[in-house]
Amino acid sequence: MMMLSNTLNNPSFWLDDHPHEECGITAIFAPGEDVARMTFFSLFALQHRGQEAAGIAVSDGFSIRMHKDIGLVSQVFTPENLAPLSGNFAIGHNRYSTTGSSSIRNAQPFLLETRHGPVAVAHNGNLVNSKELRQELLESGVGLSSSSDTEIIAQMLAGAAGEDTFERLKDAMLRWIGAYSLVILTLKEAFVARDPWGFHPLSVGLLPSGGHAAASESGALHTLGCVGIREVKPGEIIALSNHALRVEQALQPKNPTALCTFENIYFSRPDSFWDGRSVHQIRKNLGTALAKTAPVDADVVIPVPDSSIPAAIGYSQASGIPYDEGFVKNRYIGRTFIEPTDTLRKQGVALKFNVIDEKICNQRVIVIDDSLVRGNTIAPLIQLLRDAGAREVHLRITCPPISYPCFMGVDMGTCGELIAHSHTVDEIREQIGADSLVFLPLNKMMSAIGKDDGYCNACFTGCYPFTVPGHGIKMGFENCINDIHGIGR
Amino acid sequence: MMMLSNTLNNPSFWLDDHPHEECGITAIFAPGEDVARMTFFSLFALQHRGQEAAGIAVSDGFSIRMHKDIGLVSQVFTPENLAPLSGNFAIGHNRYSTTGSSSIRNAQPFLLETRHGPVAVAHNGNLVNSKELRQELLESGVGLSSSSDTEIIAQMLAGAAGEDTFERLKDAMLRWIGAYSLVILTLKEAFVARDPWGFHPLSVGLLPSGGHAAASESGALHTLGCVGIREVKPGEIIALSNHALRVEQALQPKNPTALCTFENIYFSRPDSFWDGRSVHQIRKNLGTALAKTAPVDADVVIPVPDSSIPAAIGYSQASGIPYDEGFVKNRYIGRTFIEPTDTLRKQGVALKFNVIDEKICNQRVIVIDDSLVRGNTIAPLIQLLRDAGAREVHLRITCPPISYPCFMGVDMGTCGELIAHSHTVDEIREQIGADSLVFLPLNKMMSAIGKDDGYCNACFTGCYPFTVPGHGIKMGFENCINDIHGIGR
Amino acid sequence: MMMLSNTLNNPSFWLDDHPHEECGITAIFAPGEDVARMTFFSLFALQHRGQEAAGIAVSDGFSIRMHKDIGLVSQVFTPENLAPLSGNFAIGHNRYSTTGSSSIRNAQPFLLETRHGPVAVAHNGNLVNSKELRQELLESGVGLSSSSDTEIIAQMLAGAAGEDTFERLKDAMLRWIGAYSLVILTLKEAFVARDPWGFHPLSVGLLPSGGHAAASESGALHTLGCVGIREVKPGEIIALSNHALRVEQALQPKNPTALCTFENIYFSRPDSFWDGRSVHQIRKNLGTALAKTAPVDADVVIPVPDSSIPAAIGYSQASGIPYDEGFVKNRYIGRTFIEPTDTLRKQGVALKFNVIDEKICNQRVIVIDDSLVRGNTIAPLIQLLRDAGAREVHLRITCPPISYPCFMGVDMGTCGELIAHSHTVDEIREQIGADSLVFLPLNKMMSAIGKDDGYCNACFTGCYPFTVPGHGIKMGFENCINDIHGIGR
Amino acid sequence: MMMLSNTLNNPSFWLDDHPHEECGITAIFAPGEDVARMTFFSLFALQHRGQEAAGIAVSDGFSIRMHKDIGLVSQVFTPENLAPLSGNFAIGHNRYSTTGSSSIRNAQPFLLETRHGPVAVAHNGNLVNSKELRQELLESGVGLSSSSDTEIIAQMLAGAAGEDTFERLKDAMLRWIGAYSLVILTLKEAFVARDPWGFHPLSVGLLPSGGHAAASESGALHTLGCVGIREVKPGEIIALSNHALRVEQALQPKNPTALCTFENIYFSRPDSFWDGRSVHQIRKNLGTALAKTAPVDADVVIPVPDSSIPAAIGYSQASGIPYDEGFVKNRYIGRTFIEPTDTLRKQGVALKFNVIDEKICNQRVIVIDDSLVRGNTIAPLIQLLRDAGAREVHLRITCPPISYPCFMGVDMGTCGELIAHSHTVDEIREQIGADSLVFLPLNKMMSAIGKDDGYCNACFTGCYPFTVPGHGIKMGFENCINDIHGIGR
């Protein structure tokens, strides 16, 4: 509890006004190689998807050994604890915590002994029917040791009836509603699977050594030197094992699919691909679209580093207004529980960002930010620019206002926390102190992405790809859900 | 020993081919405020100047209390260990380790009880006559508990004869040859002082609450909300105390002074000022100068993030060749002792940087880097670009080749380690695999900085501002020093 | 693995030649009191029963909160992590590790969410049919996350069909063969239960505040200030809740019961009662019996501290030979992985015990030890006495030779490790270097205990109270089990 | 500060009512052996003399390497941090903290570089003129980094003028008033020295490998397998080096000497010798003397474990009243900051000791304790006996009442804390609830020890062996010192 309230008061927390991904996952099959170390490097490249806990499970064909703990990948693993993790197959997981409860109980992979042998599961996503599935498992007499839906997935595989893991996984997928990119480890195989909506990314590639690797993002496969990288299709299961990949379209992809737009906007590394397109290029396109949609006469275009840099470059190139750095970001921001006193805060103690004053003084500044969630970060940033002498501050956002929570594994915050849920754009503009504020409209965002549909934009529109059962996942949501139904129609 | 060899083999180490600053320092006088917390935030903003150890000493007028330990500022300090550090005066220190021996013995501040009362000292720099001073102290019967020249400074203050700290410090400064930016804490005052050559930066400013603060960089004073920021002059002592600042030109500034050029090139935060000029602007100027000096027909200009970004923007604007991101830097690189096996490395496992392939494929690329020290980082980076399909790679460096070691507190490496000490530019170009390589010549670098003299460029020229006694500080230097004398003439 | 081999080579390990108890357990019901703290003190008093891990689970009627970790009770718990454990009911557990694998996965209590609500279980003992029960659970589709039979117990309670916890526990007990003293926590009750053989101890008492407490040993209840202490009967379940204890004879006690003799010999605190008798007094009786059975002319009687002290006092009083201290035991022996080199060991470096030379020099010494398991401790101790000048060393053991392993939760070692499994008494005497060696015969031991039957003496006789299924629990046991059957007849 | 008050409230603290030794020291010369490991084992055997911090310094002839930290010996040292400490000479130190401030700054050895080369010093004792010596050093211009008088000793050796370490040490000893048993390490030698009063013990012995070892107690030398053990004489310096021991009577022993009686009463291991006599035997003699001095009709004699066991055996043998165990001591008492609430305490929660009820119920009990300092432990113990049904409780103490503080390095507490400073024996008896209370008179204590004089009994008599300068070491002492002079006459 003390932990929780510290976190909420923590300036390094409230200064990061972004939705939060829940996880990064990876799987490796590389006979004769140091698979644990390769898994480590893949997780290292996926660290931005989750910083709370990390874990690796490895099979040598006879048993599965696992190490997981709370902390960054580089803190959790040492040469000493990696050494015993020898084998041919491995899976790994980075966890982001939604609740402030940093418990080892919820760290992944989740490893169970089953009648089919040991099974380890790591999961990126959220099952919206987990409550029902959980209840079914409990009613069937299974006891559950965590609140994680990854345990539900693992126990369902333990209880499933099919002939082999492939069949059991296929059967279980029929029951799962929601977002799941999965890596699964048994004694003799590693599996990757993606829900039929295709919410979250997952790619596979060929390792230089001849084996295969899978990871949430193609950027991590790049880091491993992979070639022949392709995305796992929605509804697809792929088994990594001794011979060629075994690929099966377990479930037909939903029509339309529901890929998460936010992978483009913020989550993915810029060197990753999402839905066959370069994330970096899409972000530049978003900037270009903003320049066309919301031009303004100004002296300089600056990004809120780091995710908005490509969009700011794109805006600059399309508008002809010079690009420059305006904010300096402290690279050493980490988990500190020391916060400025109120007095210090009022005196302007700026922990995470400083302004390069002479770039800003007496200038008309266009600030590009990727998204606006709670709105608590951008206001102090704009104030920093004002203090540095900015004449005008025009804020441009590369996506529409976020007005609805996400139920597919992204921590957007509750309706009550989302500034756009209850404020008009003009109210927001006034509240954050900008001279002008433009959000990129949905259709222009999708044009910049290069697709008309197939994406989940529920956080902008409230139109979820399916009815969300239970409705009560987050406090205060009950009132919100009515709005959603109103709007969703 | 294991530590050391691990470090040398550590990819996150050899991929950081930069000179290393030894320290960041700060001093606060803020009666009625939480000075320890303010010192913490100042050190936080100076973290880039040293990541090995951190310390804070605070005086409440009756005693000095201190906490220091190995680790990042955010790791060393907690609300619990900051709480007892109450008082009106404080000094703080971030340490960078040159030797790989991470010992708490060398952490600063250095606190001594003396006949004049308790004295705490924190130091950025290096006394080139420390060996003689050390010997004198030992001969006088003083025992020394560390190899740090900060202890020498503190013991000299303990033994000095003057009437007050001001006088004693002035007397001692007469004996010190080399680089020293100092913060000194006694029961009733805090002092800041800078050597008469002015090697390293140090600024003071007025706190919003009415007190004063000093810090290695103006960017840290910004973070504290300071106004009226000015640099401490070479040879100047300033006492922070109850009334107005007491300022005295203790020693006449050397003519010429010897300000460290590398603060512009690499060390300082871009939002800091150095010698009255904006570091960010100077870096843009360096890029502009490079574009004029070494133009090349190409499709895109990319920086090696983060320090080269302004120069790449400058190069782009001057040349009209579009600026873009080409490398993605892993923000979570920290102290990991897990390294790729040779096999993995040969397979291209890229730990710190990935390339955004589609920006690079089939392109003629200009890469801007701030400096080239050992040359071991840039070669793999260029290879990454080649692997991504770059047609041409043109490397432009914002300073001349570094051919000589530094004796003023910057870890450049030994002559044997400096690639430019024994290789021509063309040999270097071939070795790193670039299509062309141009270093910004000294005179154009100085023009971009906006000064003709007053700077120490010894690492480029071998012309040191004074004869360096002892000559044997680093292994292999004996041979090198002959070269230096040859060249220096 | 390194851990394991270190442990085996660890002198503080091989110098402790005792059977090892697996656990201490406790349960508290104390509305309005700080039950977590009371549980802590009870575990503190039971620390001798297990030093590897400790855990406490507390219910406030709405949820169960738990903290457990590897380490001593005093290391695992702090005021900070105890504070959130508020409620009216609690259970606690100290774990002893049999395998050298100090895994948090096997720490207890084991907490599951079930269809009947949350259930936490802590267990002292061993189910000999755990393999079959485990297989049944797996076949029913349950996945298991540890190798602990406590998880089996918890999952069986999760899947059991009865109307309330009492009924479900009763049903499950019908299936369990082996040793189990249990404490079980639900939202509204705490339960204690003991197997119908009564292998391991468990007592309940009335707290000064009006609630109830249970603990493995009456000594721990003493520490809590309990009165009205009585043992839980074999086959009995007792519910601790708002009103009077609810007591039920769930299973009829076996006839004969099979109480563990070793609680008298070694395990229990001397201030505890076992089967209604004072452990301290029984140990004195064992010494008296030894004096009568195996008299020898000598100058002094000394114990191997601490567990043999009462028996040595008893021997002295019965024989008239003066009692004295002969060994000094290092009280700070803990987990050190620093061991003497072979050279140092040969030179006589004595880590755990020293001899008080002048007590021993030129004396005929009777040494009383409680038991002899591997025989690797007593040989160096006798050598220490010889080095100190003892003229004669007569070893007297307060129980018969241990020749067979235990399957009821006590770590005796395998047949191959038990010195008496393959050596005659005279061979042992020669091997350890004693002038004479007498084990107290079984019938005299039982007389001293004051009972003819009702005790499990399988480790002495090989006559187990039931057929042990599976037979292969420990390596090398297959050969041994034939012997057992031969002897058992 | 929080630490301090926690400690004072800590039941494991107030239940240990003993004077506290400040240190254990050791020195090893063993060419070709693992001297660091040998030093570790010696410190392990001396752990009872100080549990706050531990350190080892080793010389290989070229440099001195050191590791020290806060914690028990087994916590401070690991195979990893011992490994680099290779060499032929070593010294080690266990520290007891008098003040509650567990600072690494005060851990020993204290290592200085001096004009004579590196010098490491470890110290058991207290210089009563340290304030003057400290002032002299400060006045001479030396800065001091700690409040430890060990640093004073080291800096005096750094500044001393003599030809070699032997001479410099001899000169310095002339200036030191008070208690000091020292081990000193230089590059090529290890020295041991003892003050001319001989306050604290120090012995040397011949190692099996041919080298020499020194330690505070002969028991530790025993542990190392030493033979030819003898005490370092008061005023003697011994150099351990390549050839035979170099022994010199640096200062004439005082006449009379002032050996600390409390080494016999409580501090030393029972297997150690002090002043040529067995500590265990002396403690038995003290019990015998008590039996003769203060006989009482009773049923059983019990010790307060562990230090009073030999005296209780002696009392029993002299009186014919049976010896038995009455208290069970929790062997796992360590540093826990979890304390019983007042409610729990009132309910009788007994953390450290339990009573074996049936030994006590309805009995007339003689309790033997070694000493009575604050009297806060014995009262609850007597209450435990009463609660267990003791008919009578007769307390016998093996020394006179402690009425005066110690200035020679033993933490007795201040006058105000010493129960006997302001209460008569009968008042104490009433306060602690005993039926009778007898302290062994000074002359009978000395008879049991076997000496008439040569011992410091200042804590009993107030007659210090010299005038204590400064008088104000502990708060409230000013008033006390008048009493002392009154009584001392």
Characterise this structure.
Four copies of one chain form a homotetramer. Chain A has 489 residues and is α+β, with helices and mostly antiparallel strands. The first copy, chain A, contains 20 helices and 23 strands. In chain A, strand 9 (203-206) and strand 10 form a beta hairpin. Chain A is globular. Chain A starts with a helix and ends with a helix. In chain A, 60% of the residues are buried. Chains in contact: A-B, A-C, B-D, C-D. Chains C and D meet through helix 3, helix 4, helix 9, helix 12 and helix 14 of C and helix 3, helix 4, helix 9, helix 11 and helix 12 of D.
Supply the key terms.
alpha+beta; seven-stranded antiparallel beta sheet; disordered N terminus; disordered C terminus; Rossmann fold; homotetramer; 489 residues
Runs of chain A with pLDDT <50, length 5+?
Answer: 1-15, 471-489
Count all strands of chain A and give the number. Answer: 23
Mean pLDDT of chain A: 88
CATH architecture of the largest domain in chain A: 4-Layer Sandwich
The Cα radius of gyration of chain A reads: 23 Å
Q: What does the main sheet of chain A amount to?
A: 7 strands, antiparallel
Under CATH, the topology of the largest domain in chain A can be stated as Glutamine Phosphoribosylpyrophosphate, subunit 1, domain 1
Strand content of chain A: 15-25%
Derived from helix and strand composition plus strand pairing, the structural class of chain A reads: alpha+beta
Query: At the first level of CATH, what is the class of the largest domain in chain A?
Result: Alpha Beta
Distance between the termini of chain A: 40 Å
- Percent helix range of chain A: 25-40%
- The strand line-up of the biggest sheet of chain A is 3-2-4-1-10-9-11
CATH superfamily of the largest domain in chain A: Aminohydrolase, N-terminal nucleophile (Ntn) domain
Number of helices of chain A: 20
